[in-house]
Amino acid sequence: MAATTDGTQHEDQRTGAPAPPPGRRPGPVALAVSLLGELLITAGLVLGLFVVYSLWWTNVLADRKADREADKVRDTWSHQETAPGGPGALDTKKGIGFLHVPAMRNGEVLVEKGTSEGVLNNGVAGYYTDPVKATLPTSGKTGNFTLAAHRDGHGAKFHNIDKLRDGDPIVFETKDKWYVYKVYSILPETSKYNVQVLTPVPAESGRKKAGHYITLTTCTPVFTSRYRYVVWGELVRVDPVDSKRTVPRELR
Amino acid sequence: MYGWIWRHLPGNAWLKALISLILALAVVYVLFQYVFPWAEPLLPFNDVTVDNQ
């Protein structure tokens, strides 16, 4: 018993020693190599953390922000009913409506103005103001309702864009209307400079005449932004929103 | 580098481990809060729009 106690005490003293025993100090080359190794390990860890940041943490932040903004929009809508005639019937700063795409299985996506990083990083879909201005469905005019959202990170609202097939519904919800679109054309890969996909009559989708179109754009392949993925839809129906906000049959 | 930091931390092994953990968490916080948000737009991973530039 006494011998063991002695032994542990002895070891404690040894590990508590501040420096390695003299005469065994590594040479300058060994020091440099071990420093380099430690720096490389650190760089690897930082890169790993960056992946965690961009694929997980930005989603957490963006979803939190988008939920808050969505609540605000729904609040405004319900308050406007009690106080009609107030200004800001179309408040483009807080979001103009919600996009429902059942095939993407991600619930509702708030739509806001602009496609800058500052907008899209909040976990929303943005409608284009540049280089080609989107035509809002609420305007009633013919044109193209062009939208962009992140494929990965920052909410990743269009992550499952590749699950969309011809004929799938895309529903845009505003305060008093459901705009029901049907997918009719998909471009799985195009140049990021191909702004032709945003024109009021997107010729590349096969349509030649003016109509009510919707265009979803995001980056592809996943985790990169080398190309763009484009999905086109055409308006098939506009339903009025009833007092219970009954969803159109496409969303049931 | 890490050995040098470890030797210069005060206290016994437990205290050193605790301080190391706090330091590591502080580094992760600074990375997530300041460094990554700054670096991300400079890296070509998350451009989703089509444009002329």
Automatic annotation (TrEMBL), chain A:
Residues 68-78 have a biased composition (Basic and acidic residues). Residues 1-25, 68-90 are annotated as: Disordered. The active site is at 150 (proton donor/acceptor), 219 (acyl-thioester intermediate). It holds the Pfam family Sortase. The chain crosses the membrane at residues 29-56. The keyword Isomerase does not apply. InterPro entries: Sortase, Sortase_Class_E, Sortase_dom-sf, Sortase_E. Keywords: Hydrolase, Membrane, Transmembrane, Transmembrane helix. It comes from the Bacteria. GO terms for molecular function: hydrolase activity. This is Class E sortase.
UniProtKB/TrEMBL annotation, chain B:
The chain crosses the membrane at residues 12-36. Keywords: Membrane, Transmembrane, Transmembrane helix. This is Uncharacterized protein. It comes from Streptomyces doudnae.
